[in-house]
Amino acid sequence: MKKIGFLSFGHWTPSPHSQTRSASDTLLQSIDLAVAAEELGADGAYFRVHHFARQLASPFPLLAAVGARTSRIEIGTAVIDMRYENPHYMAEDSGSADLIAGGRLQLGISRGSPEQVIDGWRYFGYRPAEGETDADMARRHAMIYLDLLQGQGFAQPSPRPMFANPPGLLRLEPHSAGLRDRIWWGAATNATAVWAAQNGMHLQSSTLKFDENGKPFHVQQAEQIKAYRDAWQAAGHQRTPRVSVSRSIFALVDDRDRAYFGGGGQEEDQLGYIDENTRAIFGRSYAAEPDVLIEELKADEAIAAADTLLLTVPNQLGVDYNAHVIEAILKHVAPALGWR
Question: Does residue 130 sit in helix, strand or coil?
């Protein structure tokens, strides 16, 4: 068995060809797609977080709304850029959203991806400390956030409070017990995957990874997963670690699928530079008739190694079509691969 969810980047554009022409369209359709995915039997609704872009940004109002409209499906992010986050405010927001959802949040956090603007986190009021990089700052914010989620008191209460306080130091409220154990780290390297394991976070690995040895993307990703699990075991955590990978996968089962994706997927990995010094490898996508797709996916070592698969969906094609994309995988592909 494998958990299968969707991952939406939440794009919108005023183009007449888009079903999401405004931020309102994207937000409301994101909720509707999560509801539809739950009805279809999918396991997760995940959302990307980007700033300064016509895409989903602050995630917690959306996650809370999805939580209020659904009852079973996991609700998450992939990923929240911790360079932009106030860990204290985030602890309150995520605690509230998790309580609304009944403890179903699965929050992916990380250093974030290449940005739309130069050092966008500076506009949010954040600066790396002396000797820190922006990645160091993201990890520092993450560690503060993880500590706050433990729910321990740390703030000295006022001797003249407006309301009566419980005894001892005060913690942030509302607190959602168990959320600390449902935090994931989005890792683009083996080293950060190991760091995530050492700090008790689950692993998210996307369709992009730093090219560390020249091997095919799915092989490098499988090696990353192994390094993560080895580090988790060495750290002595008592919980079972989880690993998700993201893929663009389209089963061609009707004329709409063939019109949109019948030319085939991006059938080879792509190499490129995400900054002046960092060479990255971008994983291939998959688009084929179900019988062909099943054989291709059998060869993907990272999908085989992961316990959770996130299907990246073309949200601008609308709720109905994206629900169809999810259903086609659940019905025509997953059973033959032993995922259902």
Answer: coil
